[in-house]
Amino acid sequence: MKEKNKYLFILCGEAFSGKSTVSKKLSEMYEAKIIGRDKIYFALDNILALENTSDEDDNNLWKNLWPISIQGIKNQLFLGHSVVVDDNCLYLKQREELRSLAKEMGVKNILIYLNVSAKTLKERIEQNKINKDRHEVPSSWLAEDSKLFERPTENENPIIYTENDTPDKLFEKFNSFL
Q: Which CATH number covers residue 88?
């Protein structure tokens, strides 16, 4: 029996760009584990009652979830699973760390940049206030993230997904990339 290729899918984009939706689809298609700070945060929320956490403490917690995510990614790759990193990966340094980990673990990494317009992001943020599909993110954090975001360049060889692309179009791009 031929062993399936293993991948580290690195999703990159601002909050509410659609990373979680894409990660679920990739997870289904490639039997990949999804790891990201949102998922860890929600798991901890039930235990730690995080809704009672101040914004400052919540922000510190968020930053401290990155090394936990990295360890989880490493563990899942070690166990032979493909992994989808469902995180904003705002900084080139974070993406480089993930690519280095993929190389260390002997798996191919694929960067998918969800490039969504500010208008669409705003609509999705407003919709989340009604649906509460994910935790509310303070608008000051969203604005700060947008300013700090080091968008992937051609040198990183990203697969670019926009809000005008259908999921099928993304996977068409993806399959031609492989």
A: 3.40.50.300
